[in-house]
Each structure stands twice: as C-alpha cells, then as structure tokens.
Amino acid sequence: MMRYSVIEKKFPREILLLKATPCKWGKCSFCDYIHDNSMDINYINEVNLQALEQVTGEYGVLEIINSGNVFELPKETLEAIKKKVEELDIKKLFLEAHWIYRSRLQEMRDFFGVDIIYKTGLETFNESFREDVLKKGFNYKSLEELRGYFDSVCLMVGIKGQTKEMIKNDIKLALETFDHFTVNVYTENTTDIKPDKELRDWFQDEYRWLEQEKKCEVLWVNTDFGVG
Q1: Do 93 and 117 meet the contact criterion of CB atoms below 8 Å apart?
Q2: pTM (2 decimals)?
Q3: CA pair distance 142, 187, nearest whole angstrom
Q4: Which of 101, 114, 129, 145 is least crowded, fewest Cβ atoms below 10 Å from its Cβ?
C-alpha cells in the first residue's frame, strides 16, 4: 500500500492516504475502499504517523485522503497533521468529506487554521443513478447549495448503467459550477458494481482533452495520484 506521493501537475501538492475508523456513511454500492478502515486506534495512528514522516512541505499544499472522511481520522492523527502543517508552514489542505458532514466543515478550518479545499465524492449529478444505483446519500436541493458547502466534486465514469449523456452532462456541470473537480475512471473491484468497457473507452477518446483543462484532474486508473 502506497500512502505518500507527490502530485506535480495543475495543482502541485503532496498527498497522503491515511487509515481511519469506519466511514459513517458506508453505504456506497461501488466502494470497497472501506476495507482499509480499522477499529484499532493505536494501529491507525502508527500507520498514519509513519506516512506523515514523509511529508516535506515542498509545495506548501497537502492533501489528506482516507477510506471515508477526514472526520473519521483519530484525534491523535489529526493533531499530528496539524503539527506537521505548522512545522512545515503548509498553507493549504485538501480534505474529503461526505454530504452528511456538511454542517461540520468549519470545524476543520478552525482546527487547522489554514485554507481548506473540501472535496466530496458526488460521483454524478444524475440523481437517479447516484442515489438508486450508487447509494451516495446526497440530498442537495440545488447546485448552489452543493457549491455552498464543497469546493470540489469527484466524479466517476465508466460504470454499467451509466450513459454517455449522463457523463457529458456531468462534465458540463462540473466545469460550470466548480473551480476544481476530479474524474475517476471506474476500476473493477470486489463489489457488484461493474465497469462498462465500451463507455470507458469512449470517455478516454472523447475527453482526453480534460488533461489540458486547468480545473480538472483525471485518474485514468485509480492509482494515478500515486497512492493506493
């Protein structure tokens, strides 16, 4: 498991994949990342502190991801991150949170005292596919409401049941609404949700230009950020 990497393109930063307690939502039908979760707090902290030792602060920006949400990291891990931020004069953090944590986002801003870019795994703006198939649990009423909480969305493409029209609309709305978004090309895992190879191939041909789009980061495979 690679837990540290450096992203050098578009939004240069260091990135850490940390362990955490179980995801409080935990219902996403396509997600087996939660297998990295644990209830052994001492072990979680041991793994995370080792990963944190690799951070250099070279870009002044650090992204923290885990198999869930930043709010599920143990207190000791959060304090270690804060100490590293202060020691290395890190000015910005990228953090992840699910919609259920929308009312708590300010807590991390207050705790770390630096600029925070909040990412959320929306997967698609198509409500029916998002909720009936992917089981995401996002009940926002408008894009304005969603944008009011989160700075960036993560989209997923190439899933059985998804359509080209859905993907086209997702990319359009992301470009219009957010200053940063990520597109993940779905990789088959241990869940019952399967990839659509034809759709993935079409996306890779049709949207290769996203590599030059300054707002967008594309993960053609799920380890493109160097962690996982």
Answers
A1: yes
A2: 0.94
A3: 29
A4: 145
DSSP state of 22: P
> CB 3: neighbour CB atoms within 10 A?
21
Q: Give average pLDDT by consecutive 10-residue segment, the chain, 228 residues.
A: 94 97 95 86 97 98 95 98 98 98 98 98 98 98 98 98 98 98 95 96 97 96 86
Q: Is 119 helix (H, G, I), strand (E, B) or coil?
A: strand
178's tokens: 């957010």
Sign of the CA dihedral running 157, 160, 164, 168: negative
Which residues 6+ apart lie within 8 Å of 139 measured at CB?
Answer: 99
**DSSP label of 96:** E
Q: Which domains does the chain have, with CATH numbers?
A: 4-219 (3.20.20)
* Tokens found for residue 193: 């949700």
